[in-house]
Structures are given as C-alpha cells and as structure tokens.
Specification:
With about 750 residues, the protein is an alpha+beta fold. It has four domains: about 10-30 and about 375-495, Rossmann fold; about 35-130 and about 310-370, no CATH class; about 155-280, Galactose-binding domain-like (Jelly Rolls, Sandwich); about 535-740, Rossmann fold (3-Layer(aba) Sandwich). The chain is about 20% helix and about 35% strand. The protein contains 14 helices and 41 strands. A hairpin with a 5-residue loop joins strand 30 (about 475-480) and strand 31. It is flat, with a radius of gyration of 31 Å. The chain starts with 9 loop residues before the first helix and ends in a 10-residue tail after the last strand. Mean pLDDT is about 90; it is low at about 1-35.
C-alpha cells in the first residue's frame, strides 16, 4: 500500500522525519490565548460596547482593568476610547467606543474585531485633537463625495480568478431592453459644478468579425448623457459629465438602454454598478456624516443637520489610530444643530461625525475561547470539519472511527475562521488549517479529511433561497462549452502546492456530504454507521450503465474486463434500448424503461454502479433526457445494500449550485442510494474519465492492499496513479470529488 499512494502516505512518513528535526526551529511554541470578545461588524462607523453588553456574553467586566483592554482587527491593534469614571475599574455605566470598518469581498461583508483583556501590555487608545474655533482658519464649504451603488442579483464569469474577480451583477440587458434605476443622493450638489456619473458594464456576448457589437445609451432624468458603441466580452466603465443644474431633486432616475441597432444577432450586457461623484455640503443624514477633505493648513469646517447637540467628531484617516476632535463649537439652528471645528489638514484627511445616540452596536458579540487548533500537541489521522451546530450530530461517527483505531478530531469551520483568518469567512482558512495540521501536529499525520455540510457558490447569500455555506467550497474557473465556476475540494488537501512542486496531487484523502440542518446530518451519519456495522452481506453484483453513443458502450466494456468472473454484471446500455426506435415518443418510452431497470438493479443490491456517458447537474444522458433524474432517486429502497457509484460524466457532482442539490448529492441524501459517489463537479471527457475509472476498477479487483480499502484510499490512489502513469490532466484531479466519508470501507474487500 505504501509504495502506491505516494504522496498520500509514503511522503507523509518522509515529511514527519523532516518536520521532527526542524519543528523546534521553525515554529513558535503555542502559547495559550486569552479569552476575547468576538465582535462582528457589517457597517462602517463608530461603535460602542457597554458594560451590560459584556455581561450578556458571560464575562464579569467588573474584574477587568480598563487599561488592559485591547482591540484588534486582522492582526492589527485598533485604538479605542474608554468612558469610565475610574480608570482602573470597569463599572456598569462605563462603555468602550471605537471606529470599525466593514469589509466587502467575494466571500463576506462581515468584518470581525477582537477585544482582549488578558494580553500583555496596555491597550492602544484614541488620541485627541483640539478642534477649537480660533477664527484664523480658512473655511472649507463642502467636500467631494463619491457614492457607489451596487446590487448583486445574478452571477456570470468569463475570465479571471473567482477569489478576486467581481462576478456578481445587478441587471442583465439584451437587445431593446431598458432599465430604470433610482439614484438617491444624500444632498443636492453645489451650484455651477460638474457631476461625474459612471456605470460599470460587462459585455457578455461577442460576435466574431463584427465590431462593435454593443450599443448603450444612458440617460439621467430622461436626458441623454452618454451614447457609446463598444465591443466584445469586455468590461466598460462608461463615464459621463453632468451639470449640477440638471439635478433638481435628491431622487433621480438613471436609464440604461440597449437600442439593439448594431448588426449583432445577440447583444447582452450586464450592469455591475453605478458611481456618482459630486461636490456637496457638510450635511449629516440621519445624524451620520463621513467625508474626506484636502488641504495644506488650518481649515474650518461647519457640519450641519444634526438632530441632537451631543455631536461626536473623529479623525478616521488611519482607521486603526482614530483621534477624537474635542473643544469644537455646537450651534443651534432653526431645526437642527451644527458643529463647527478647526483642524490642521495636510494633504488628505477623513472624518466621521455622529451623535451619541447614533453610535452603532454590533448585533453579534460573543465570548470566544480558543479551540487551540495551533497547538502542535494536537494529533489526528481523521479530521472532520463541519459547522458548529452539527458537532453533536457527527459525534456517533467519531466514536465509530475511534473504535476502528483512528485518532479523530472534529473541528468547526467557525473555529477555523477564528484561528486562521481572524474570524473572517474565507475558504482559504480551511486550507491554511489543514496545511498547519499536516505540517505541525503530532503523529499520526492527518490522513482523512471529511467535510460535512452544504456549500454554495453564493457565498454572501445574494439570491433568495440560496443554500447556506455550512462548509464552503473553493472555486476555480473552468472552460468548456461555457465557462463554469467549479468546486474543487482537492485544493484543500493539496497542501504542498507552494513548496513541494507537485501543484495538484493531494496529500490527504478527502470527501464530503451535504447537510443543511442537524437532522439531515444525523440521518446521513446514521446511514454511514448502518452501512459499516450491518452484518448483511452485499451481493456480488456490478451495474454497468452506458449512454447511447457507441464509444460509451466500448469504454464501459473495457471496465468490465477488470471484473472477476464470479461477479454478476448487469449491463444497461441505452444504445441497445433505443436500437430500431425511430420516433421521439418511442425513444422516450425506452429511455423510461432503462431508468426503471437502473432503479431496480440498484435496489437489488448492486455493490458498484458505474455510469459512462453524458450528463448534467441533475440527470444522466444529455441527449436522451430522462435516463435518470434527481427526482427519481426517491424510488431507491436499497438502504441495506448501498451502492458505490462511479459517475463518468459532466457536472453530476456540481454541489455548489445555489438552489439545488446535484445528482451525486441526491444519491447520498436518499434513504437508500449510495454510500459514496465519485463524480466530476465540472466538464469532463470520456477518455480521461475512463482512465480514472480503470484505475479504480484495477485497485478494487486486481490489486492487494495492506490496509482497508476505504473510499478515500480508492479514489485518491486512482487519481495519483492516473496522473503518474497515464498523465491525465490537472482538471480531472481537481474536478472529481468523493461524496461520502473517505474512511468508509467497501464491503467484501
């Protein structure tokens, strides 16, 4: 076994020797982290955290020395202001105020701040700036505001890195479409100034030998302000200049139109975002005002529109070193209050003003205790990663694995984010954790990785009804008949990619199952346990299914050559069902008959099921729809004789669809169905798939292993062997995913 599964096992032993020698020199010893409050931030602004807020988390703030309070964000200390009567004691009327920023990336809009009270040293504190009005400063009448409007309603990506490329769009427009978008400005612009309007567009269609193939018209309040022709599958920032007298109200309408007057048969354009830049007054909206000014000396600023006199002003130019402006003047107007202050403005400064009542509160403040995942004394050869809410549901499976001799550890994704990405959601944190565990934990080195929970490409739940990311997937962009965002679990366990040179082969065995709620996870865990503990013997039946093309039947027959004669092989080849049938109705009836035969054969106890052919996310046979669809899997009644399915087709394993489960997942979710499914999450080709399947069948039926034949060993060794011996491309390694527990053993071997 060891000579065959390099680098999964053999290289693992080599690396243990290496790491044992160098660990002391290369790693800082793990030191116990103090408890902290985890504070989620979804909007940028000034926040406050009260004594009562801290009590609600379960801590006792009366025993905390305020001088020891320290706030951090993404590894950087953030200045805080402490409002306390006693500088050495925290009391019920005391609170903390701090400036916090949301984040905005493809994965999340939630930032996380950490409040510690046991770290060494005194905390970083808010500085103070004297804002007293001296009458010697030059007045600044207003500021240049930059507004950004964006809504993510649909996704599409043609090129680039999905981790960083913005592939979510607001509207899709086709020939002759017109979209009206309401633009609400917080204040009217200065008179006799220009306003800059930009639209971020993305061409989706591209007609060869035709240039240009896009024509976009943009109007503001029914007045045309831009008329542009452009070409291809490209981005375009359409920028326009608008005179301030054209804006008479804060509520405006931008109209985007595709007149369809190019010669392009298809003209498709996405609207991504709209920006408006203009000069405006220092007028607060809902007692909030953020602004940036330029200067070269002492400047006077008058901030209007506050409903309360207890105004707070902060210099937030450096978000981690905020300074509070004090000693400024507050004046009473007709229906509002005004703050007037002076400051020395050199180059660029950014301010945030609010009132005491409008200080924000985080909706999610919780006590955090480290799971000590960076403790190098940890050990496990079986790591189960799931959502915290699912941990009780997976415990019976961990007990089974321990009885089987495995060192197990269940880890929540929440703890992984907290300890490997400062609490911020990102699939890369999971890989960072696995790399750390593989490199640094005590022997046995992690071998099995089991991911339990749903995943969706809609990381931020932009779509209604989108599946929640319990254990997210890493995505890469694949090219085929069309571009597709492909989930790639292999990426998580390819932990030597940056420094060992193989770039693609896994160092651990990985599998996953879906799960949206604890009850679903409990049911699937019980399904695995029942499969492994039942004494019922599997029948020696193999089900071989082929699509209607002759080549697919040939490839299936090649696999049958690996099967010993004492196994019963049931061949369901769609080509033979359709032979001689001419009408579409006749073909549909025969395809339905083939589907019934597939269900019946699996129910009779096929230990292995193999499909060779075309497919998509929810079905087999793209050209004869209806061979097998997800809705038919509720007819599977083989819960005591679960099959292992090898699906040699495209997209059957596409588990990141935001709204639907894939066929592979449905086989797992079924009460009967499969104990494991090995299928592609993306585009694949018959010959490449066949090479991978031949290695699987060879391992099962021809080779002798020194240990148990687990699903993880079988699928991982097949990838490695096919890569080394048959030179299959990297996309096959990446796209084929095991649905099931990688430590599950096939019965009878």
């Amino acid at each position: 076994m060891f000579h065959k599964i390099f680098p999964v096992i053999f290289a693992l032993l080599i690396f243990n020797l290496y790491s044992g020698v160098h660990a002391a020199a290369q790693l800082a010893r793990y030191t116990k982290q103090g408890d902290a409050l985890r504070i989620e931030i979804t909007k940028t602004g000034m926040y406050w955290l009260s004594y009562e807020d801290m009590v609600k988390t379960g801590i006792q703030p009366q025993f905390i020395n305020p001088t020891r309070l320290r706030l951090f964000n993404q590894g950087q200390e953030v200045a805080i202001g402490i409002v306390a009567d006693d500088p050495n004691k925290f009391q019920p009327t005391d609170y903390i105020k701090f400036y916090a920023q949301a984040i905005d990336n493809n994965f999340t809009g939630t930032n996380v701040y950490w409040l510690y009270w046991r770290k060494k040293g005194r905390g970083k504190r808010t500085a103070y700036v004297n804002g007293q009005v001296t009458g010697q400063a030059e007045s600044i009448p207003g500021f240049y505001d930059q507004l950004h409007f964006e809504h993510n309603k649909r996704w599409d990506i043609q090129e680039g890195n999905p981790d960083t490329e913005d592939y979510w769009f607001w509207h899709k427009l086709q020939k002759t479409d017109v979209k009206n978008i309401t633009i609400n400005l917080p204040d009217l612009p200065f008179e006799n100034t220009d306003i800059i309007v930009r639209t971020g567009l993305r061409g989706h269609s591209s007609i060869a030998k035709l240039e240009p193939d896009h024509h976009t018209l943009i109007s503001w309040n029914n007045a045309l302000i831009s008329d542009e022709y452009w070409d291809g599958n490209t981005e375009l920032v359409q920028e326009m200049v608008l005179a301030s007298e054209k804006i008479e109200d804060k509520r405006n309408t931008l109209t985007l139109e595709l007149p369809g007057d190019t010669e392009a048969i298809i003209d498709i354009v996405y609207l991504n975002w709209i920006e408006v830049d203009y000069w405006r007054h220092f007028t607060a909206i809902n007692d909030q005002l953020s602004f940036t000014v330029n200067g070269s000396g002492k400047a006077l600023m008058e901030l209007n529109g506050f409903s309360q006199p207890d105004i707070l002003i902060f210099d937030v130019t450096d978000p981690n070193a905020v300074a509070e402006v004090i000693n400024f003047s507050v004046e009473t107007g007709e229906n509002a209050y005004k703050a007037v202050f002076e400051d020395n403005v050199t180059e660029v400064k950014t301010y945030h003003a609010t009132t005491l009542q409008k200080l924000k509160k985080s909706l999610h403040v919780s006590l955090w205790k480290s799971a000590r995942l960076k403790n190098i004394k940890n050990r496990a050869d079986y790591i189960l990663i799931t959502a915290k809410e699912f941990l009780p549901s997976v415990e019976p499976l961990l007990q089974l694995r321990r009885r089987q001799g495995l060192q197990t550890k269940a880890v929540s994704v929440e703890d992984i984010y907290n300890e490997f990405n400062y609490g911020i959601f990102d699939p890369a944190a999971i890989k960072a954790f696995l790399r750390f565990a593989y490199d640094n934990w005590r022997s046995p080195t992690p071998l099995y990785v089991f991911l339990v929970g749903d995943a969706s490409l809609d990381y931020r739940s932009n779509l209604r009804g989108s599946k929640k990311n319990k254990v997210p997937a890493h995505l890469y962009l694949a090219y085929g008949e069309k571009t597709l965002l492909i989930p790639d679990d292999n990426w998580y366990v390819n932990v030597w990619d940056s420094y060992m040179g193989n770039y693609i082969l896994p160092e651990m065995m990985i599998g996953r199952i879906p799960g949206d709620i604890p009850e679903t996870v409990t049911r699937l865990v019980n399904k695995i346990i029942h499969f492994e503990e039942t004494t019922q013997q599997h029948t020696q039946k193999i089900l071989m299914i082929a699509d209607e093309d002759a080549q697919e039947a040939v490839l299936s027959d090649e696999l049958i050559k690996y099967i010993p004669e004492d196994f019963e092989v049931n061949k369901i080849y769609l080509r033979s069902y359709l032979e001689g049938e001419e009408t579409q109705e006749q073909k549909q009836k025969k395809t339905a008959k083939a589907s019934r035969d597939i269900i019946s054969s699996i129910n009779e106890g096929a230990i292995i099921t193999n499909f060779t052919g075309h497919g998509s996310r929810d079905r087999w046979s793209r050209y004869s729809p209806g061979l097998l669809r997800t809705e038919q899997l509720n007819q599977l009644k083989n819960k005591d004789n679960l099959t292992f399915l090898v699906a040699l087709t495209c997209n059957n394993g596409y588990f990141t669809d935001p709204e639907h489960y894939s066929l592979a997942e449905k086989f797992i979710l079924s009460d009967g169905g499969a104990i494991g499914v090995f299928s592609s999450t993306g585009f694949s080709y018959a010959l490449e798939n066949s090479i991978l399947a031949q290695e699987i069948f060879s391992i099962i039926f021809e080779q002798t292993t020194s240990g148990p034949l687990t699903l993880g060993y079988l699928t991982t060794e097949a990838k490695i062997a096919a890569y080394h011996k048959r030179d299959i491309p990297a996309n096959v390694i990446s796209s084929f995913v095991l649905f099931g527990d990688p430590a599950t053993q096939l019965k009878g071997w």
